[in-house]
Amino acid sequence: MFEGLWGYEHPLSGQIRRLEEELDALFGTGTSSLTGTRNIRSLPGSSFPAVNVAATPDAIIVYLFAPGLDPKGFDISMQQNLLSIAGTREIPLDEKATYYRRERFSGEFRRAITLPEDADPERVEAKYTNGMLVVTIGRRQAAKPRQIEVR
Amino acid sequence: MATQQQVSQSPTAGGTAQGASRNEAAIRPPVDVFETSDGIKLLADMPGVSKEHLHLQTEGNTLTIEGQVQFDMPDKLEALYADVRSTVYRCSFVLSSELDTSHIEAMLKDGVLAVRIPKREELRPRRIQVQSG
C-alpha cells in the first residue's frame, strides 16, 4: 500500500510523478514534493519531525513522525491554508553514562505546511498514536454544478 | 570507564528478520546508545510502530530490530508530499561478548523503543572489600 503511495522503486512511481505534476498545477506551487523539490518552509536534510501529506476528496491528512512526545505539548495552529506545528522534545542526558551514539533529535521544532486552497481551518482534528501525530483537515466542498433546464 | 566501543553497527541482517519480504528500502532509525555500569541502553525512534509490528531478535551476538509502520489509510488517498518514503525501520548491532544477550529487555512507548542489554553478571564492576587485621 504505502510503497505505492510514497516509494521510489514502485512500478507506479512514474504515474505518481505525473499525478504530482497534475496536483501541483491544481493546488499551486509549494505543496507537492515526491521528486525531491522541497516545500520552501521545510529545512534541508533531516528535519524533525518528518512530514508526509496526503489527501482524499474530503480531507487533507498530515502525518508527522514525532515519537516520544506528550500530545498536550503540541502547538498546532492554522492561518488560512498554512498549518503550523511546533513543540519541544527534551532528551535528558545521563551524566554518569558514556554515550556512543546520539542521533535522536532533541530541542525545539516547528514545521509549517502549505495546504491546498480548499483546506478548511474550522475543521481540524489531531490524534497522536504510537508516536505519529495525524492532523486531518476538512476540505470545503465545491458548489455542486446546477443543471439549467432549457424551456 | 569503558575504553572500547562495545556495540557496533553491522550491515542490516536482511532476509532473516521477520517481515523483510518487500523490496522496499528500510529506514535506519535514529538511535541513542549509551553505557552505564551495568550494561548498554539503546533508544530508537520508530514512530508509527506498535508492539504488534515490532520484532527484535538475537542471532548469536547480533541484535536485529525491525518495525512496520501502520496507520489508518482512508479510501482514495493520494500522496502530496513525502519526507518519509518507506514503511519499514530496520537496524542491527553486533554485541560484544561481555553483554548478556539472553536478558535483553525492550519497551516501546509512543514510537520510542528502549532496549536494555545487561552485562554478564560475573563481568560487572565489583568493589573489593579490604579486610583489616
Architecture overview:
Chain A is mostly beta strands and 151 residues long. Chain A contains 2 helices and 8 strands; from the N terminus they run ααββββββββ. In chain A, strands 1-2-8-7 form a 4-stranded antiparallel sheet, with no helix packed on it. In chain A, a hairpin with a 3-residue loop joins strand 1 (50-55) and strand 2 (59-65). The termini of chain A are far apart. Chain B is an all-beta fold and 133 residues long. Chain B has no helices and 9 strands. In chain B, the strands form 2 sheets. Chain B has a 4-stranded antiparallel sheet, with no helix packed on it. Chain B has a 4-stranded antiparallel sheet with strand order 2-3-9-8, with no helix packed on it. Chain B starts with 6 loop residues before the first strand and ends in a 15-residue tail after the last strand. Mean pLDDT of chain B is 82; it is low at 1-22. The interface between A and B is large, with 58 and 47 residues.
Span of the ends, CA to CA of chain B? 31 Å
* Total of domains of chain A: 2
- Most strands sheet of chain A: 4 strands, antiparallel
Oligomeric category: heterodimer
Kindly name the structural category of chain A.
mainly beta
Q: Class of the largest domain in chain A, according to the CATH hierarchy?
A: Mainly Beta
- The count of strands of chain B amounts to 9
Shape of chain A: elongated
| CATH architect. name of chain B | Sandwich
As a percent range, the share of helical residues of chain A equals 10-25%
Cα gyration radius of chain A (Å): 19 Å
* Beginning-to-end CA distance, first to last residue of chain A: 51 Å
Strand order of the largest sheet of chain B: 1-7-5-4
Number of helices of chain B: 0
* Mean of residue pLDDT values of chain B: 82
Stated plainly, the CATH topology of the largest domain in chain A is called: Immunoglobulin-like
